[in-house]
Amino acid sequence: MNALEAVAMKMIEKTKNFFSEYTTPQKLVVKSSKIGVLYRLYQLTAIPYALWYVALIGGHQETDTILSSVTTKVKGIALTNTTELGEQIWDVADYIIPAQEDGSFFLMTNMIITPNQTQSKCAEYPTPKSICTSDMNCTKGFKDLQGNGVQTGRCVHYSESVKTCEVLGWCPVEKKVEPPNPALLADAENFTVFIKNNIQFTKFNFSKTNILPKMTRSYLANCALKRNMDPDCPIFRIKYIFEEAREDFQTMAVYGGVMAVQIQWECNLDLNLCAPQYSFRRLDKKGPNSSEPSVHNLR
């Protein structure tokens, strides 16, 4: 019998067995209380774990990184009355510098006022580089990066007892003094900031915004006043942000500071759940005597 005939015979035998034989699994019963208890404990442990892993923590789910964009808009009006400026109304065009930033905003809360400035020539503010006794101490065209203009080459009186190099710039020059305390725009704590956040999970082709369909104009006009009852409101009073971060606005407003608004999205697309959670904290170190240099002073 050659190899081909042997293979054919085996196939014929298997075909006969397939139609003439029937196999059933054998069941073995072990009468042991210890083994029975261990087996049931295993079942009681495995089943809850499977439910917890799948249903509660979504162990069966896929994940994706989030794409996010944030835009902000600040609103509010403040009235000040100073010796230098008299009564003045401040609106968003005055205290938001610059007008638009990506994912952030700069809110001016305080300022050192130098009234009636014009481009002209005047004595520089006294510093080691500007104090002089004669024209020989001044260099025409010299620009001090910490100064207020370009030196003309003349040494002039800053006061009766002090002479400094004359500069061409905005005159009179700004004085290096402590900022007002309380802050000029102390009322800024009542300003509001509207935060719009758009997100996308590209893997699942899912997009969402924190502006919900229910948020009409009338809703947005009032929801910031009742945040405790409406946590979905995307408008925040400045004072509320500081309170949530456990910071005092009036103290920070004097010298400035950096605050972070964190938006954490908790999403379970299987359950059609996707909502933002807001939190706030301060990023810079506190106080004018901090070792961290101030970067909040803009001219």
Quick structural gist:
Helices cover 22% and strands 27% of the residues.
Description of the structure:
By secondary structure, the protein is an alpha+beta fold. Among the domains are: 67-111 and 180-282, atp-gated p2x4 ion channel fold, CATH 2.60.490.10; 118-171, no CATH class. 22% of the residues lie in helices and 27% in strands. It has 6 helices and 11 strands. Strands 1, 7, 8 and 9 form a 4-stranded antiparallel sheet that branches. A 3-stranded antiparallel sheet has the order 4-6-5, with no helix packed on it. The protein has a two-stranded antiparallel ribbon with strand order 2-3. The model has no long low-confidence stretch (mean pLDDT 82). GO terms for molecular function: extracellularly ATP-gated monoatomic cation channel activity; purinergic nucleotide receptor activity.
